[in-house]
Amino acid sequence: MAGAPTIFRICVAVLAAGSASLFALQSSPTVSAERVAFDAWVDGQAKSALDTRRARVAALKTRENIEARQQEVRAGIADMLGVLPGSNGPLDAIVTRTTPRDGYRIEHLVFQSLPGFKVTALVYVPDGPGPFPAVLGTAGHANEGKASPTYQNVWVSLARRGFVVLAYDPFGQGERVEYLDPVKGGSRVGIGTREHSMTGQQLLLSGRTLGAYMVQDMRRALDYLESRTDVDRTRLAVAGNSGGGTQAALLGAVEPRLAAVVISCYMTSWADMWNVPGPQDAEQILPGFVGRGFDFADFAVAAAPRGVLVSSAIKDFFPIAGSRAASEELAPVFAALEAPDRLARVENDATHGWSQPLREGAYRALGTWLGRPGLHPTELPVVAEADAALRVTPTGQLATSLGTRTVRAINADHARALASSRAPVTEAKLRVLAGLSTAATEPRVVLRAGNPWSPAGERLLLEVEPGVRVQARLRRPASAAVSFTLLADERGATSRTELIERLVSEGQTLLAIDVRGTGDLAPAAGVSGYSGAYQFAARAWLLGTSVVAWQTHDLLHGLAVLRVEAGAAAARGPSVRAQGQTVPAALLAAQFDRPAALTLEDGLVSYLDFASADTHDGLTLAVLPGVLQTTDLPELMARVAPVPVRLLSPRTAAGAAITATTLPAHLGTPVPANVTITH
């Protein structure tokens, strides 16, 4: 990288070669062999996809094949994001007030990203005539959003160096709290990552992601910058840290107007990230991202040959080894595109955060790439302004001032539009949704121990994937069985002894199966502030599947085993009883292997109801990405007719009871003739 400043040299001390070891699992006396095998199976899928990708990228030697890869990456990321259709509607931009400062001024701005969906922002404008290069500043997960003191250092320092800066509030932060508590103020669910996780799971149901709405906000911010006469529209950049680094990476991959991208405290590799700290905020989860052969470095591949600064903290929870490996991988790509000086790297020996050395690296990179070289990189002191002094709205919140729509309200409308327009589902589409082949399910019992007529029952291990075994418990009545039932439960079916014994006393033979996500294969404790259920499900989403798909597969194996156990004695075939988050999988499994009856306890009745809810609780494992583009639970209930479907104590997404009176509203359709409700 001849001629580049020293800070831009890529010095990689720790490379990707050691990354694969992070997938290795150590057996523990407290962890079952089945759990170790399952975790290794999940990790192995990620490792296989990442290894294949790494080999493909290493083989990119010519401009032609690199540009082909870029097209693949850009299209893939846009597809996985669920990027919203382009909007060229009115911005309705309003500067609510202007604050003069020494050498620059701050314009307090609000504009529309979508009709009725407003964005609060601060525009830092240098003194002088311009036109100036402009930087879109993306805040990380600070409660104050754009007004965070750390980020003010960047916005002010760039303005002092002759850049226009538009710093905006990501929704869920700053003046854009979407779950505002009208009495206490603040967020009802938690500002930042908690709001994002709440809405993000609902977005997945309709085939979109949180990142898609962030990209929409950022694109409209660029539209606004381009509308200004004091901005040089050929010199636009995006710069952000942490969650803002994620936003910068996403925008850089899909937005051709940018000349430069600064990604701080985000770039790493999934090989290093997969287990610890694991999946993070909702905008960082693109369904299928790992399974389809993508990694963090691909954001920069898509942006090349425009300027990309990889800015990393050595002690970050985004592993530094992955960041260095990404830079090493990217160097020959930029070189082949004849732009080696457009890839830069800066590190600081610190924990997560946009520390001053990393900020100064951004000033130097942006100065070089946006036509302001030679600027002194040292950051002068910035006195952070109080949050109230930087408000755009009178009350400090759009919700109580100018009014705005929310992402979840927009998504609810989108979900309802899907429900009213989609064609009747076919078995082929359901197989894609559940990740099933057309081959018949062959029962495979690899262990049997105990007596099915004893209270403890007979323990079975079912191999549902090569090397993946789930626990099951077979319990028979003393006399001839009058029926056969497959039992699944989000709490672990094999532990539901009281229910099992009650059903056995009624003459039923029970096969209780701990499908993946329950029992011994339930989510482990989460790390880095995220729940175990979220990180468990997010790994499945990243692989391009879901816990619901896994559970559907497991239930089909359970049904196959139970049919063998029943033999000629089961005149009607087995029934299925599912509880909680296993309910969607039971309905999906019933599409391919019709049971005699379905009992669905304490579960969802509609994904549309989930997507339209104000809040939801305890449904993360039931999230099925893209389901509402294909079907919904009421349609699946009706499709199994005349099989009776009994809804036992059904619940809303927030956990409230659904009654016979309210059931049609929550289904979103008339109650199918084969469906009854009891409590």
TrEMBL record:
Keyword Signal: yes
Keyword Secreted: no
Range of residues in the leader sequence: 1-24
Provenance organism: Luteitalea pratensis
Regions crossing the membrane: none
Keywords: Hydrolase, Signal
UniProt protein name: Putative dienelactone hydrolase
Annotated GO MF terms: hydrolase activity
One Pfam family per UniProt: Abhydrolase_7
InterPro entries documented for this protein: AB_hydrolase_fold, Abhydrolase_bac, FrsA_esterase
